[in-house]
């Protein structure tokens, strides 16, 4: 069968899809990946066929250390914060309606490719005729292209399914609104996208378009929200991109090795980090550890000094580095989290404010396999504290001194090994496509 993967212009979201794409390719299926021009090279370097769709785009705006990103007068944080809200008292109809009104008109429409990507993707899908479209959970051009070309389709998650959870809340509240309050921005937005290609829309189609005919989920179930959706769990398999591994990576460290990484998305798409890298590094300067910090040239230029126990590298594959690490400090991104879980490494999450970073930190703390730095603990003064038991220094020391963190992380690693592999997923996708054809 022919399988079309599609993802908006974020390399980390594409990397999340590579193992499944390659499993299908290795099983003999034709596979190609369609994305915006800025990701085409990364697709080609993965060994998969690349199709350029839409225009090169990024999300403008640079954050300050308060975590706010200004994008067309609205903070990037606020674009996502509505969808990630979980407090029951907040989830009123007005709140949920406002969240999806903003998401459809701004985030889903423009930040994930806009009409240029949608038009190009549908044109390619109708020409190539895929049997299956696998779409990143933020790339809603995917289900439209599948519907326009007659293909089955499955979305692929990149962490906690906040969109699916919030859409279920939205649909439930919408069904109980009086006619004069029956605004449906999601249905209107989907209907408009489908009508552009001569495809009909009806109310029962909205859930499928928002959450896929199936959901491919590499998130550990104990971290995921419980939703009654047809889900295909798959084991997270690291893909860090093609690279040459430095010789020092595989040499046993003389001191406990600590990895510090703040991910690619913040520095490549969102304009920078949400807290001070200098303060993070200074907080660990006096510990008897070796810190490997992945910092690019922009981040290095912002540093006043580089502590002697810090090795700064622009990139090193986490799949190779983490087996030698005693702990990893990171922003809570799904790719970094997945690499650490695969290798049984305890984690300290200094969360970004974009999606599910806080969720991951809290789940790891509950399992005794990591710790969370709350936002108030990420100020310069708090990071430098040597007295506070919740300081970064204190958390690193506790993980190094208490073997239970490594033991619990190893239990999670073994659990993940029992999750179906991408190879096992192939058979399920083949059966799905066969059912769709029938």
Automatic annotation (TrEMBL):
<dbReference type="InterPro" id="IPR010610">
    <property type="entry name" value="EryCIII-like_C"/>
</dbReference>
<protein>
    <submittedName>
        <fullName>Activator-dependent family glycosyltransferase</fullName>
    </submittedName>
</protein>
<dbReference type="InterPro" id="IPR050426">
    <property type="entry name" value="Glycosyltransferase_28"/>
</dbReference>
<dbReference type="InterPro" id="IPR030953">
    <property type="entry name" value="Glycosyl_450act"/>
</dbReference>
<dbReference type="Pfam" id="PF06722">
    <property type="entry name" value="EryCIII-like_C"/>
</dbReference>
<feature type="region of interest" description="Disordered">
    <location>
        <begin position="54"/>
        <end position="75"/>
    </location>
</feature>
<keyword id="KW-0045">Antibiotic biosynthesis</keyword>
<dbReference type="InterPro" id="IPR002213">
    <property type="entry name" value="UDP_glucos_trans"/>
</dbReference>
<feature type="domain" description="Erythromycin biosynthesis protein CIII-like N-terminal">
    <location>
        <begin position="22"/>
        <end position="263"/>
    </location>
</feature>
<feature type="domain" description="Erythromycin biosynthesis protein CIII-like C-terminal">
    <location>
        <begin position="279"/>
        <end position="432"/>
    </location>
</feature>
<dbReference type="InterPro" id="IPR048284">
    <property type="entry name" value="EryCIII-like_N"/>
</dbReference>
<keyword id="KW-0808">Transferase</keyword>
<keyword id="KW-0328">Glycosyltransferase</keyword>
<dbReference type="Pfam" id="PF21036">
    <property type="entry name" value="EryCIII-like_N"/>
</dbReference>
<comment type="similarity">
    <text>Belongs to the glycosyltransferase 28 family.</text>
</comment>
């Amino acid at each position: 069968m022919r399988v079309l993967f599609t993802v908006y212009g974020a390399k980390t979201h594409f990397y999340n899809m590579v193992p499944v794409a390659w499993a299908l390719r290795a099983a003999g299926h034709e596979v190609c990946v369609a994305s915006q021009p800025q990701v085409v090279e990364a697709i080609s370097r993965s060994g998969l066929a690349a199709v350029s769709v839409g225009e090169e785009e990024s999300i403008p705006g640079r954050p300050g250390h308060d975590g706010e990103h200004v994008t067309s007068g609205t903070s990037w944080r606020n674009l996502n914060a509505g969808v990630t809200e979980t407090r029951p008292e907040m989830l009123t109809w007005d709140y949920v309606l406002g969240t999806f009104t903003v998401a459809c008109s701004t985030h889903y429409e423009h930040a994930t490719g806009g009409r240029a990507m949608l038009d190009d993707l549908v044109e390619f899908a109708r020409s190539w005729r895929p049997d299956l479209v696998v779409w990143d959970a933020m790339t809603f051009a995917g289900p439209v292209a599948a519907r326009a070309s007659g293909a089955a389709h499955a979305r692929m998650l990149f962490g906690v399914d906040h969109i699916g959870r919030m859409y279920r809340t939205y649909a439930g509240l919408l069904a109980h609104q009086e006619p004069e309050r029956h605004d449906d921005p999601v249905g209107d937005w989907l209907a408009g996208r489908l009508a552009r290609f001569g495809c009909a829309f009806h109310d029962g189609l909205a859930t499928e378009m928002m959450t896929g005919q199936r959901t491919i989920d590499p998130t550990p179930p104990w971290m995921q929200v419980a939703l009654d959706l047809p889900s295909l769990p798959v084991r997270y398999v690291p893909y860090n991109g093609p690279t040459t591994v430095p010789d020092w990576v595989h040499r046993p460290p003389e001191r406990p090795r600590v990895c510090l990484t703040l991910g690619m998305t913040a520095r490549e798409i969102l304009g920078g980090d949400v807290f001070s890298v200098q303060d993070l590094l200074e907080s660990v300067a006096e510990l008897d550890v070796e810190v490997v910090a992945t910092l690019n040239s922009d981040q290095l230029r912002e540093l006043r000094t580089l502590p002697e126990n810090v090795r700064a590298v622009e990139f090193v594959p986490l799949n190779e580095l983490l087996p030698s690490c005693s702990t990893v400090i990171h922003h809570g991104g799904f790719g970094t989290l997945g690499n650490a879980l695969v290798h049984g490494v305890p984690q300290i999450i200094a969360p970004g404010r974009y999606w599910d970073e806080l969720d991951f930190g809290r789940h790891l703390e509950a399992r005794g396999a990591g710790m969370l730095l709350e936002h108030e603990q990420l100020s310069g003064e708090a990071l430098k504290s040597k007295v506070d038991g919740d300081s970064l220094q204190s958390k690193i020391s506790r993980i190094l001194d208490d073997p239970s963190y490594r033991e619990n992380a190893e239990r999670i690693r073994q659990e993940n090994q029992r999750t179906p592999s991408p190879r096992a997923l192939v058979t399920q996708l083949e059966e799905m496509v066969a059912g769709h054809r029938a």
